[in-house]
Amino acid sequence: MKRMSIGSGIVAGMVCAGVALGQGEGGGEASDQRIADLQNAFSEITESFRQRAMALEQKGVAERDAALAERDAAVAAQKTAEAAIATWQAEVDRAVAARDAAVKALDMGDTARDALQAERDAALVARNAAQAAMKAVEVELDAAVVSREKAEAEMAAFRLKSETLDAELQTMRGTLSDMDMKLNVSTAAQSEQDAALKAGEVERQLLQQALASSQQENMRERFALTYNLGNIYKAAGQFARAEEYLLKALDMKADDPAVHYNLGILYDDNLKDRHKARVHYERFLELAPADRDAPNVVKWLKEL
């Protein structure tokens, strides 16, 4: 509101000066002085507009940097989750090896059975640790989503500022048109005014392009996080959660062949839903007929 009141005051001053000029036409030197005063006022409002545009640009850059920092934090969280999954997988492998050794020792009596029970307890602890790691991954993903929504809100505010700037440009066009009618501004001066307005238009368009680019990048990061989490749940044997996140990824990017490929395998091997497996296998072949996995998918379709 403060910025609008300042701009309105300057425009009102210019209009009053124009009225005074219109009343004093034919006044000789006094009229020339009024013209000079009005030109000075126009220079001041042009400089004020340029400074406001620069301030908006600087704030936009700062907001973009903040969004990039949040994206880097989300990527770091994903890497942490992947490391936790790798640790969990190693623990599971060790538990499986210990279980196999214990099975071979079953015939050794009560002592061997007690050892096997201890190994089973250790495997249970490892499984619980893996589930805790999965929960941590979900929390980190939720935090990333919150960060993305915050960035989108900031981008919306930035878009509103850009629209306000556009409205101010339109106001200046109207003011300049009135001044041109009353002062009979020369062709050279009018060209300079048009150049200033065009520069403002170009700056607004660049800001809008930067906003659109940032939104696309956020969508790609959200898709990658959701898709990777679906595959992590599948590897961990939590097939319902894997289906949930892979379908979310499909909602974000319906024509991604990798998502259809993994959903086909999930329904075929794990969830035992042949109809859904066939749908996703066929869609994969439509999207990526030359993929190196295409021959395998053709073979699997024949086996359904």
What would the keywords be for this entry?
8 helices, disordered N terminus, 2 domains, Helix Hairpins, elongated, mainly alpha, 90% helix, 304 residues
Short précis:
The chain is mainly α and 304 residues long.
Arithmetic mean pLDDT: 75
Overall 3D geometry?
elongated
Q: Taking Cα atoms only, what radius of gyration do you get, to the nearest Å?
A: 33 Å
Assembly category: single chain
CATH class of the largest domain: Mainly Alpha
Summarize the helix and strand pattern as letters: HHHHHHHH
Query: What fraction strand?
Result: under 5%
Structural class given helices, strands, pairing?
mainly alpha
The total strand number stands at 0
Q: Termini separation (Å)?
A: 67 Å
What is the name of the CATH topology of the largest domain? Helix Hairpins
Sheet bearing the most strands, described? none
Would you write up a description of this structure?
This protein folds into two domains: 2-237, Orthogonal Bundle (Helix Hairpins), CATH 1.10.287; 254-304. It is 90% helix and 0% strand. The protein has eight helices and no strands. The chain has helices spanning 2-23, 29-104, 110-183, 187-235, 239-252, 257-270, 274-287, 294-303. Helix 3 runs antiparallel to helix 4 and helix 7 runs antiparallel to helix 8. The radius of gyration is 33 Å and the shape is elongated.
